[in-house]
Amino acid sequence: MRARIVTNDRYRNWQETYPILADRTLLIRGRWNTGRVILEGGVDRAQAAAA
Fold first, then answer.
1. Are strands 36-39 and 27-33 parallel, antiparallel or unpaired?
2. Where are the domains of the chain?
């Protein structure tokens, strides 16, 4: 399964053990704010919906 993950963490300390974390398409930068998910870093709604 290649689920995408919305997170504000880059998991840099785990990349040596889990090289897949270096894949820039896996982690979507984002956060939860006032009852809404805020996506950052140029992710558009179509990309997020396809995840």
1. antiparallel
2. 5-50
